[in-house]
Design brief:
This protein has helices spanning about 20-35, 80-90, 100-110, 125-130, 135-150, 165-170, 190-200, 225-235, 250-260, 275-285, 300-305, 335-345, 350-365, 370-390, and strands spanning about 5-10, 40-45, 60, 65-70, 70-75, 95, 115-120, 155-160, 175-180, 210-215, 240-245, 265-270, 290, 310-315, 330-335. The chain is about 40% helix and about 15% strand. The relative contact order is 0.12. By secondary structure, the protein is α/β, with parallel strands linked by helices. It contains 14 helices and 15 strands. It has a seven-stranded parallel β-sheet with strand order 3-2-1-6-7-8-9, sandwiched between helices. It has a six-stranded parallel β-sheet with strand order 12-11-10-13-14-15, with helices on both faces.
Length: about 400
């Protein structure tokens, strides 16, 4: 039986043109829901660089105070009109993808009219709180606000089993379900000429192996581990190139460290690549995705690389490594530079192994956004049915 067509508010504290894993997730949800299932509206803070006219569905923006970093707005959802605007849109469900401003906004809406709320916990916020909130008092308030926002949801989703540890670190003791993210890059074959165009663009000889990292340039993604392992690789006499794709608050520091340890000729910083086909060509041109992050809760880039049969090297036990079998659907190492270096050294010249593992990753770990959003949309129906079968008194949050 076909599911009822639903109207869903998809909320997050950042939306395009700010690009990260969560804003990409939001766009995939919105695109597919509006195309195949029902109606989705983006709810997000104002961004001075917004170009919302480009999207074939509504984007509702509430006030932001300022932007920081790579264009992340700080939402200010306190004006009553913002809440009544959402109430008047008659949504079936509110789905927040961030437990900060937009989740608090959904709590304010529920004081006027009760809607079922889903919260997807994507990011290990304790990393940001510990690194960027200056005082113990402010840290306590940040944790308390996020925890109350999480607890206020009718259902909490995580993108991997390992994310539950971060939820517990935030103080959340309730139930959750795993709702995996998908990949918006299709499984396609990139031509030899397209792959070679990356080598020509960056003057990389044909016989030199290419490693790639894709993500925000921020130290807590274990970027120092990557660079230190590459220094060992160079010192062993191995010629290679490392493509660093992305931008972020630590970008200048990462570049300085790269030069300091003598890797200025081996490491190529491409900045952020917004064109998805071009990014897919970069993946395809590379032999190995090196992604030792413990921060990421799902690791979209692992599936993106798998779409072109490029295997990933990950830290064993990390969320990004969930479902990866060493030597079969990817490669695993310990969380230290020597282990990372040793693994790269063992596999980088074994083209048959890299090709076989890449194809197995493409077959076994790749999940399309069509499949992921269908699972989420089916779950929306269950959340709504449970909500409608329960008596709701005054909203307590």
């Amino acid at each position: 039986m076909k599911n009822k067509e639903l109207k869903i508010a998809l909320g997050n504290d950042a939306w395009l043109p700010t690009i990260d894993g969560v804003s990409t997730t939001l766009k995939c949800y919105a695109d597919i829901i509006n195309e195949k299932y029902g109606e989705a509206v983006i709810v997000t803070p104002d961004n001075p660089n917004a170009e919302d006219y480009k999207f074939p569905y509504p984007v509702y923006r509430y006030k932001s105070l300022f932007t920081f970093g790579e264009g992340y707005p700080v939402g200010w959802p306190f004006k009553k009109k913002f809440s009544t605007d959402i109430v008047d849109m008659n949504f079936d469900l509110l789905h927040s993808h961030c437990p900060i401003a937009t989740s608090y906004y959904f709590r304010r809406i529920n004081r006027i009219k009760r809607f079922p709320v889903v919260l997807t916990y994507h990011t290990k916020f304790e990393y940001d709180f510990e690194a960027r909130v200056p005082s113990a008092l402010l840290k306590a308030r940040a944790y308390g606000m996020a925890l109350n926002n999480i607890k206020s949801a009718d259902e909490v989703w995580v993108t991997s089993d390992g994310t539950s540890e971060s939820l517990r670190n935030m103080g959340y003791e309730g139930d959750y379900i795993v709702m995996p993210n998908g990949c918006d890059l299709p499984i396609i074959s990139i031509s030899d000429n397209e792959r070679d165009s990356i080598r020509r663009k960056h003057n990389i000889p044909m016989d030199v192996p290419i490693l790639i990292f894709v993500g925000r340039m921020i130290w807590y993604k274990n970027l120092k581990l990557i660079l230190d392992s590459c220094r060992m690789l160079k010192n062993s006499g191995k010629d290679f190139r490392l493509l660093m794709v992305g931008m972020g608050p630590d970008e200048n520091a990462v570049k300085k460290y790269t030069n300091k340890i003598g890797l200025s000729n081996e490491v190529i910083f491409t900045e952020q690549i917004n064109d998805r086909r071009e990014l897919q060509t970069y993946y395809s041109a590379s032999d190995l995705l090196v992604f030792p992050s413990l921060f990421d809760t799902n690791g979209l880039v692992v599936r993106e690389a798998a779409a072109t049969a490029t295997p990933a090297l990950l830290v064993e036990g990390s969320c990004a490594a969930e479902g990866i079998i060493d030597g079969e659907t990817g490669f695993l190492c310990e969380e230290n530079a020597h282990s990372l270096y040793t693994k790269i050294q063992k596999i980088i010249d074994n083209k048959d192994l890299i090709g076989r593992v890449g194809l197995q990753a493409q077959s076994d770990i790749y999940i399309s956004w069509d499949d992921a959003v269908k699972m989420a949309y089916d779950r929306y129906q269950i959340v709504i049915d449970k909500f409608n079968s329960t008596q709701h008194g005054d909203y307590k949050y």
